Amino acid sequence: MLGRSVRGASVGIEGSNARVKTDINGRFILQAPIGASLVFDADNYQTSLATVTGQPLGDIVMLSSSMGETIVLKGDVPPPAPGAAQLDRTELQRVPGTGGDIVRALTVMPGVVNLQIPLGYSGVVIRGASPQDSKVLIDGFEVPVLFHSIGFRAVTPAETIATLDFIPGGFDVAFGRASSGIVSLTTRSGGDKRAGQAEVSFIDGGLIAQGPIGKDTEYLFAVRRSTIDFVLPALIPDSVDLSLTTVPRYWDEQFRIDHKLNRRWKLRLSSLGTDDIFELVASKQEDAKDKRFFNRTRFLRNTLAAKYHEGEWTADMGLSLLLQEFVFELGSSQYIRNTLTSVTPRVEVTRAMPKALGLTDVVWRTGGEVQVGRYGIDLALPVEPREGEPMPEMDSDDVSTLFDGTIYTPDFVAWTAMSANLDPKLRVTTGLRADFFGRARQLALQPRGEIQYKLSKPWTLRLASGVYHRPPQFQSELLQKDLKSEQSRQTIVGLQYEPREGIRTQVSGYYTDRTSLISRPAPVADGMTQFDPSLVNNGRGTTFGGELLATYRGGPWFGWLSYSYSKSTRVDAPGQPNRLFSFDQPHSMNLAVSWKKGKWTLGGRFQLYSGLPFTPALGSVFDSDRNIHIPIYADANSDRAPIHHQLDLRVDRSWKAGPVKLTGFIDVQNVYMNTSVVTYFYNYDFTQRAAFKSLPIIPSIGLRGEL
Amino acid sequence: MRKLLLLVLVGCGGDLDQPWDLDHDRIVAIRAEPAGIVSGETSRLDGLLAGKGVATSEREPIQVIVTSPQSLAEALSMDADGYLVTAPDEARLDAARTELGLDAGAPVPLQLGVAFTPELVGIKTIRLGMTSLNPALGAMQIDGAEAPAPGTEIVIGIEVDVPVSIETLDTDEVNWLTSCGEMHDFDLPSGYIRVEDEVDTSFMGELAVVLRDDNGGVTWQVWPIRAE
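^ inputs. structure came back:
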């Protein structure tokens, strides 16, 4: 158990006088209608809320008023889909080897591809699907970038997050535009006590301020800046031909204001923004234009949300604006300058009824969303390699993809779903999502459903199945108007075992069939037809696997064991061979244990996972006029990097210095210095290759102060 | 791109032969003399080759084939001195332009597959229908002095940056290559050589400069070099 049960907390139904107190184990009994909001109050804790849905209520998390680490856990909220898992803020920060970071904490989840360094992608690879096939949401809205371009830190600090929901598949109709999984982060409100926090490490440092404004308003403000840019220039040896004309650095900001308008209405205004910039010249001559690299990525998402609740009815409304800029310049002729303005209004209405249509615990939801994006794209680049295509030769003069214009992506979606108990052991959810992707004028109907069956007291069987679409919206996909969405059909079966409070084991198996994958036209092997760089919905793929997740929360202990087996393959065009998916990782295992007592928290994490496939080069042909070597590759992904294992350790200690609570931590990754191969890279003419190895040991030291 | 950046930042690649390295089996450049020809003119092929532990050499290819367009395969022939290309008449060139989707009067790129050994294979393109000469090397400075004549030994210091530079047009591409020490900014008009006093450092070798223009023209110069 991470915290302790709260005895004597007051539990009431919002809008009524009914109140009870929790017992010594933090338990309570209270008659409440489905849809009612429960309010939890206790001395020295922030107020917590929960909604009665007909599902088991699960644990109520109460944060201490001083933003301490005390969290009450007395069971577990049922996962939103078989195989799904949830981590709260304290657990996120306690997982060793993550430096308290959300992104790295994600790697403990079964089904997430693990890699020593996340080379070549900036999202999450879930269940054998490309990073762009899964979505990362913060407070229900998509964020375009999950982590900063240096340091591999999440764009939002863990201290501002309440929970992280990981849904690797079989997700609800309210989630869309993804054909694999969902990572949903929920930020926390500011609480009713004024507090501040500062943290600094070698990677970054930040400030968080929170508290009430009057009786009905709370605020939380966080800002963070990289610190690694202060040290980085000193780490680069003089012998390296490099001019850091703009030292890599990042900023991120977050604020959230919650206001209770009356007993029915709550409002929230929130903002999340990042700004990463990086410029270098691969020469000591700063004016060497041909050797310049520049990258700037920044986005700002502002959201206004409202929640209405009255009796059986609940409505969630939101209006979100996303402003994004991505600039990448390489040498004197290759560049992409991309801006995106996106407006997303959304509404969802829920009616929760104890009985309806002869069924019990009925929850009906319906919603709609409009997402209108305006892309300004100016680019001059080589043909972008698709997943599975090996890296082409580096030709700094190649600008075979040219575009300068504006693209609109007006997308509309409506969904409805109903959950109900058919009998006390059987609960069924069925729903339909309809996306209309305006650019391609495509209507995508996506039926989804789930059956939960309680076999006997500790056992629950779950079966989920559905259709999922991911629209073309990444890089070169946007340049072709005729491309349709990629589709997946997912089937997941899960078995959940909860022998007693604090212990949960879930096993799941899944099969995903992917169609209409965006790939190249089938090559014509007549020796005359040249490579066709256009894109078509030609590809197919399958992924199957099994996952195990066992968690233990009891006393000072927190334990986490996850294992996944997966096989993911692709066929790029009809008649082409079945090949391994580029992020295929058959085995991945994580064992994390954490112990907390008094001022000390100790933790360890052991990871073992397969290396990723790669395409070996067989040689090259020298193009004398272009002065480049054109590689000749073996079959796509026909070789694999070796298995990797490492041990990470973390120690936290807290103490008081006057009114300030200080916490220092040391988080050491790869303590026994296993430097295994991440991937291979080749010399200029592809006659030699060298291993890109994981870093032998990565210590992270930080200090956090709370007021 | 993230991968590329990491490689740059962590300085990987130290164990691999670098693109400026002449101590490596490779084709440095393939030359057609002249680079572009009009109907009836001929162009001859040769190349600059480097090898592991051996000096560079200018050699004729052992085999050449036309890879594109196949309709101009007869432009390639062989005589006692090696392979040569003869630009066909305008009617044949016009037909090739149509085949390749080129504008009227545009130069026709004749792409050749060129082998110097069974392992060292390259591609060379000759422009047919236009006259184009290989570029001339501009003024060069080595270690602060005017570059010596080809073949003249250059002596440089150890553990000092020895600057090299050449005057070029903006459209030219230059490569400095060596088998003695390390070349820095090898692909810029001005770079420098540095020889470290280490066990595995070669103190004798060659220095070469290769200049390419944007019409497929190429020229080079090679000097023996010694560090002391």
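Chain B is about 10% helix and 45% strand. Residues 134-227 of chain B form a domain with the Immunoglobulin-like fold (CATH 2.60.40.10).
thumbs up if we can close this ticket
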